[in-house]
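Quarterly update from the structural biology core.
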Amino acid sequence: MKMSPPTSKKGTAMDQNGINAIFTAAAGATDWQRTDLGLSTKVRYAGSEWTVQLPPDSGRACIPGVLGDGCEMSACVVATWLQTMPIVEAAMSATRLL
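Predicted structure, tokenized:
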């Protein structure tokens, strides 16, 4: 089953360039939080705040939701492994104890 791209309540679908931009921004994020669902960060794109999560054990990064301007995510978008690797590095750097 093929998943549709994330869509706002306004009916605007996120294209692949937007999805790539969100994952790229997450790869540069320095503010990560630990939760029961794994590590997460928030990035801004197209006037909305997008959450990018890393699963607690292992697996690819994903965009589980969006907040702001009345938007909601209709599908979880999973990163490729090539997109996930720099996101993991950013999360590990940001959460490393010195």
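The chain has two helices and five strands.
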